Amino acid sequence: MNSPARIWLDRIRGLPLERPIRILNVCGGHERTIATSGIRSLLPPAVQLIPGPGCPVCVCPEEDVFHAIQLSLTRSVILVAFGDMLRVPVNGPKGRPRSLEQAIALGADVRPIASPSEAAVIARENPRKTVVFFVAGFETTLAPVAALIAMGLPLNLKLLISGRLTWPAVAMLLQSEEPGFDALIAPGHVATVMGPEEWEFVVRDHHMPAAIAGFTADALLAATYSTLRQLLERRNFLDNCYPKTVRPTGNAVARRYLNETLEVTDAPWRGIGVIPRSGFRLRPEYAGHDARIEFPLDEAAERPRRGEMPPGCDCARVILGKVLPTDCRLYGSGCTPESPIGPCMVSDEGACHVWWTAGYRSGRHAFGGGTAARTAR
Q1: Is 135 helix (H, G, I), strand (E, B) or coil?
Q2: CA quadruple 315, 94, 160, 215: dihedral positive or negative?
Q3: Are 202 and 184 in contact (CB under 8 A)?
Q4: Are strands 21-25 and 110-113 parallel, antiparallel or unpaired?
Q5: CA angle, 83 as apex, 168 and 109 as ends, to 5°?
């Protein structure tokens, strides 16, 4: 751990904390740093860092993944998607493909890509084929997709949009009877695009401390210290602990592209249900590129657990910070990164994947065996 991180850690240890304090982190990148750096085990037992809804792969609707699988198998298309999406499992009868990866084994032309621009390149290289880009992600992923749309898509490129906004899930939790956390660490990359103002509702409407953090151990410890000080001093505000990147109103160009090409709409989150004003969809003027219009999903036959998590999977509760990954009965027992059952074990932004990769086999491992491990459960 570097010197700035040690300084922030010493400051946290010096605070007079008299009760357990739960701090929700929204970003999968934050969770990865927290786990790999061993931050939880170094904090005072009263401080509990809780992973939250920061994994787009985890919340992507099961129906959308199923739609992509069916498109790849029943239509003469090239389907492209970000790599993690190829391994996300859907619910269905045994013997039928349950992921895009399994669809490939049956002959589907499914290709992983790392950036939106690759989808356009593939479309231009294959002008006689329809290319469907399955787009799952949060605001930082949708911004370059929106720029690609605004600049002009190849006629044969269609988009299956499954984008989500981060803040509505936090708003839903705060509006519930038991939010389950006392302070919030907001994602720095989202605030870079959308502006820090997007998170002011946490303080304004719910009187809760909040801090925007970067992705290093010292940045996360600085944000943790800020929220703890706010709680102790009963002085709540939104603290921008990532000022080098996060500026007022965010990235004006990225926001303009988002507003010009996409609309915000009510949207389902896997295993959670519909969250108001939490999803992106193409504006009507881009209907010619909308894969949902050109290739509507036909689900005449009932599928077991359509839209839900697999049987026994607690991913939805993990996403909402209600339980720890290690509380799921499938965690490590059949569900591992090599053989994922639930979506939280697929992506390196999924809390279950992060915890398993970091070597956490129980809550005691994650929290160092202190009081936090017991009370967080």
Answers
A1: strand
A2: positive
A3: yes
A4: unpaired
A5: 120
Instruction: Give every CB contact of residue 49 below 8 A, 6+ residues apart in sequence.
Output: 23, 25, 34, 39, 40, 43, 224
The secondary structure element, H or E, covering residue 257 is helix 252-261
* Local structure of residue 350 (DSSP, 8 states): S
pTM of the predicted protein model: 0.94
The number of helices, as runs of H, and strands, as runs of E, in the chain is 18, 11
Distances (CA, A) of 70 to 79, 100, 106, 228, 347: 10, 9, 12, 48, 22
pLDDT per residue, tens digit, the chain (377 aa), is 678 999 999 999 999 999 999 999 999 999 999 999 999 999 999 999 999 999 999 999 999 999 999 999 999 999 999 999 999 999 988 889 999 999 999 999 999 999 999 999 999 999 999 999 999 999 999 999 999 999 999 999 999 999 999 999 999 999 998 899 999 999 999 999 999 999 999 999 999 999 999 999 999 999 999 999 999 999 999 999 999 999 999 999 999 999 999 999 999 999 999 999 999 999 999 999 999 999 999 876 678 889 999 999 999 999 999 999 999 999 999 999 999 999 999 999 999 999 999 999 987 767 754 433 333 33
